[in-house]
Design a protein that fits this description.
Blueprint lengths: L3 E5 L5 H14 L3 E6 L1 H9 L5 E8 L1 H10 L10 E6 L6 E6 L1 H6 L4 H20 L1
Antiparallel strand pairs: 1-5, 2-3, 3-4, 4-5
Protein name: Duf302 domain-containing protein
Organism: Anaeramoeba ignava
Length: 130
């Protein structure tokens, strides 16, 4: 069972892929907030190389508000991030999102599930831009 939505990107240059993904997020009205270069941190701390990877944090306030209205504790689960990954020794770059249907399915809350379905459509719109 998969817990992520995943798309292989056309680009083979990681920084170019990052630019393309950020533009796709913005073109779908998602606000890009931050980037965390996870693999660089792991390599610096543990000297273990996983290639290039980072997490992009983004927000769509309307959807965040919908989850918070359904359950304020959903703040801990907001699907406001994407992962960009290029494995060591590979030219393939992948964009990954948490699957909001599976993510919020654990809450067993019909209001949250309804918002998750709308979020899934928005994330697929981002994939369509790539």
């Amino acid at each position: 069972m998969t817990f992520v939505l995943k798309k292989k990107l056309k680009e083979t240059d990681f920084e170019k892929a990052l630019e393309t993904v950020i533009e796709a997020l913005k073109s779908c009205d998602l606000i890009v907030l931050a980037q965390a270069r996870i693999c660089k941190s792991v390599k610096a701390a543990l000297n273990e190389d996983f290639g290039d990877c980072l997490v992009i944090t983004f927000c769509y306030p309307e959807y965040a508000a919908g989850f918070l209205r359904a359950d304020p504790d959903s703040l801990a689960l907001l699907p406001c991030h994407a992962a960009l990954r290029k494995d060591k020794g590979s030219d393939e770059i992948f964009l990954l999102f948490p699957d909001p249907i599976k993510y919020f399915g654990i809450a067993n809350n019909s209001k949250m599930n309804g918002v998750a379905e709308v979020v899934l459509k928005k994330l697929n719109d981002v994939f369509d831009k790539l």
